[in-house]
């Protein structure tokens, strides 16, 4: 009904969009119904498979002025369906196994709508009321998942105004920045004759404590958000030190020690050691206990970036992979990754609930002293009540539900790894520890040759293989039946040559083994079309004398 | 249907929540229907009016462990309705005029559900596709609203990979931090023998350029997020300099000049001057043109925090209030404030599309060099497709629709100001420039006395009046019929004595004059109950010899 009444500018018409609901038989009403009754069907029907070139999509989003006149809701919705939804990414498709986004449980959609309708602002109690204790509760549960303190601990701290077990935020990047912000402010804390880095700034802090620079240490496979953090916090990207990894993409403690000693010898100070709890590219986990030991030894903040791997703590079977995470000073976990919550549910947790005092802020009109306003201890100000969706997911699925999803995803990754290893013309590059793995296409003949190639030969062959992998990944994505992502690694088995690989994340519970077989089949078909790239590879092989006599 | 099938842990049961929709007659199905058909009715029915004490609400959110077993969706939903929704804040009520959140247009709710169902991640094209040009389009339209460049400008820059007209983010705080991050990195940019602050850090930057410190200048009424920004960026809160304001809460240019000269004389460098485009507390706007002149004179970055006031640019009638904003290097605008979009739609805009190069980040697996991935130029990483809601609101309401809403809101504020001024026992403290105003309750006798009181007498009376204002505001909020917020100002007319005031924001288009009258009536009734506070005020009056002879 209302959708036809607007599109004229009068106060009366305008008020109607605030007071008259969309009719069930309106375009939007029908969309809602479709979403509610058959989300996958809706997405499958409306998202076109074959990829439209970006520059063509841009044509539809080229107007530079806010449109002068209003538009009918129905017309606008049609536009969105044809030009936005049609060319969005089917992130929940079980054949799209290249992202960390997955299918969502149905019940979260109506709850998300409820959240938007309530439109709470979590910065302060005044605009969020019960959402504030709810968010603190979610942080408490996640804190317990990591740190497993007893009930009295949570009774004491969970709802304490001056404390916080963590902070919810839009995503892992803000979570990592927040953790390192806290670490920086704690290290350069107020002291005799110094008001602290929060008040006086970083240069004054370094000077007061006599440090030439601060550094953040992380493996070479650390997430790029740490580089943003180093930049934002004034530490400098050069002072984010990338430590070499072993053949399973885990930080090498001997190299870490070497690097930290060098920092100290040069008059610097290690601010933080960051352990990776599931690298974004391969899902490998650093030796967290060893990192905790070493961080304690040199008095550095120990942060674990478990944005991806954190959910694994729900599994009795695989929890041990993250042993040592409970010794971290702070931990990042994204609920919108393997906790199956929609985008926008990042979290950082703090072992010690008083740590957040280091970043406490107050104002007259909000987050007054003594209030329980969440805004006092978060980097963000106004933000939505996403905590409700995390809370609901935790309750409806329960720890045992999550455990099952996580165990199944890791098992599936192991099966896929076996499947790949069994192919003549594919090669597993990194085996799954969590539900991530990487692999590439290598023609059988080349595979045989590579096994006995010397470093120089590997160096010359790799760019050709990289080009073929890139070609396959791009073409497969454009075709739109399935999607794997790609990245570049430096595998030990290939003498650290930069190697382009397919990257697969098997978090979607709806992905079947048949679908995985089809992904390989399609890649093989595309590879067969890469005539000129394969020709170049063949020529290189011949020049290297690696062609089997035929 | 599905809501009854879960609550047992088997793979089959678990998969059902991903594949079986909620039945229309389920608890969640009914909620959806209610939300779709009668949002205000739903909120009015489910949010209890009388406020429940926070500590009682906390009892329901005290469990510290992730529940072990799954729970029926219906049971969980009932729990949410009774314990969360019931005690949330009715932010869209037209009688709740103390927040910057307002009623939402109906069409945004189903669209929000669509956005969640699509679950795009805007960090990269790979997980957002058409959402990326759409977001760039929204930034372009807002950029045009502020800077009004010609079509060729937008054609050239809007979709350019290496450029960005701004950044969307969760809210104004992140927007302000991003703007100042860019400013800091531009000032301490790479030069001969220096790789730039982004790479080497803040201390090295200050040393290279020979500055003792950086400062950010803003009026005393600047938003507290700037203090967070100064802290996060390593500049230090003490280096956020609060400049005195005139009797309309606008920065005093003479005082600004004085403060900046002092910074320079001490070897510091003014990084940025921040103009306030609608103070949070009173809605006043700094003289932006004068600030632009002065910022240019001393070579400082000029940022305008128009988180609240930015939407006013839609109004031909009131746009002039922000004259000079088009000379800002960067501008913050929150679409979840007076642009009537749900929480989570902050934005920062940059005059020069190449400024964001100062904070550019890349990685192997996302935001590769040359890609149009938005994550290369934002502080946040993964984040949701909120831009779709802004885009839709801009199209369905159009500039002229917004103009009407904004004009009406300011007119309504002026009417309310007149209404207050006409009362014997209320007093307007700040008149509306935008749709914000502040006032307080002052018994008639005291009002008369105050008019001729000397500074010392004002000083002694004010705490009593403050206590009464606090009492009324708190009681009115608890009663739950209506809500105004409160803050503390230092009004020139009261010799800068800290004065507690009611703060009103009239953005909700559904608020009527009758409702405003009722708000005053209710406050008057509550004031009548504040016997002991009024007694103390009376005693003070007598001691001061201010009681009219009777």
From TrEMBL, chains A, B:
Cofactor(s) essential for the protein: pyridoxal 5'-phosphate
Modification N6-(pyridoxal phosphate)lysine, positions: 337
Regions annotated as coiled coil: none
One record GO biological process: carboxylic acid metabolic process
Gene3D superfamilies on file: Aspartate Aminotransferase, domain 1, Type I PLP-dependent aspartate aminotransferase-like (Major domain)
Classification via NCBIfam families: NOD_PanD_pyr
Protein name: Glutamate decarboxylase
Organism this protein belongs to: Pseudidiomarina atlantica
